[in-house]
Amino acid sequence: MFILKKILTPFLLPPGIFIVFLIYSGIRLLFKKQWNGGIVNCLAGIFIWTLSISPVADAIITGLESNIEIPKNPQGDVIILLGGGSNIGSSDLSGVGSPTGDALARIVTAVRLQNRLNIPIIVSSGQVYKNKPSDAPIIKRFLVDLGVPSNKIILEDKSRDTIENARYAGEICKKMEFKKPILVTSAYHMKRSVLSFKRVDIEVTPLPADFKTWKGMKYGWEDYFPSVSSLGDTGRAVHEYMGLLFYKLAY
Questions:
Q1: Domain residue spans in the chain?
Q2: Exposed, middle or buried: residue 208 (CB in 10 Å: 0-12, 13-18, 19+)?
Q3: Which is it for strands 205-209 and 86-92: parallel, antiparallel or unpaired?
Q4: What pLDDT was estimated at residue 183?
Q5: What pTM was computed for the model?
Q6: Which of 15, 91, 135, 156 is least buried, going by the fewest C-beta atoms within 10 A?
Q7: Spans of the chain below 50 pLDDT
């Protein structure tokens, strides 16, 4: 019964249920000799299935995390922490709003580093859309809850994307004469982030958080079933590749 549940569940939840519908409707159309519609539906279902399995998602995101390593003994005079999104209105232990999973992994990494080096943290996360406030105050609240002194936290809440993270955080570094910033963001986001800081003439020491892939990963039969988490990782990776392409063309 346990194995049966593990097999059926992925196809009763998104994206699996949509895959089943597409392939089923495609097969029905093929039986009715409606070749074009049948082939399109079947291929669409197979395509979504492919993007929704762990081995494919990991293969796509590996290119972003390759050649990125955590320095053994990172040294610097300030930490630049890039926000990764938040649930603005959610209830929380110490207030309203909480970071998303990616953002929380970055926060924990920054706190551990700050505890080791006792240096300030620049929180760089602005208001992307008018109806959603900046993540920066939420991140600051979590940093304080985790033991970082409030006077060690500097908020940068104007940036709307990664290049603006670099621009505005870089301005703070220059104004406050920080010379050796350590950049904390997700591993898959690090290449674009470092490139952005180079564009504004800021050299950073990368300290990646939350690796999605690693050497020697092994997969079982269950990893070939569609999952929303794998589809999300695929989406993150595609977003990063598009961002890298845009930066190379625009800057």
A1: 11-52, 78-209
A2: buried
A3: unpaired
A4: 98
A5: 0.93
A6: 91
A7: none
Residue type, 226: P
3 state DSSP class of 156: strand
Supply the DSSP symbol for 56.
H
- Separation between Cα atoms, residue 251 and residue 247, nearest integer Å: 5
Could you tell me which of 230, 171, 199, 240 has the C-alpha nearest to residue 50? Answer: 230
Please tell me the predicted confidence (pLDDT) of residue 226. 97
pLDDT confidence of residue 59? 96
Cα-based angle 81, 58, 240 (whole degrees, multiple of 5):
45
Residue 205 to residues 74, 84, 172: CA-CA distances in angstroms?
Answer: 8, 19, 17
In degrees to the nearest 10, what's the CA dihedral of 139, 105, 158, 173?
100
In this structure, what token pair is assigned to residue 148?
A: 């970082």
pLDDT at 191: 96
Residues 78-209: name the CATH superfamily: HUPs (3.40.50.620)
Q: Which residue has the tokens 């406050």?
A: 176
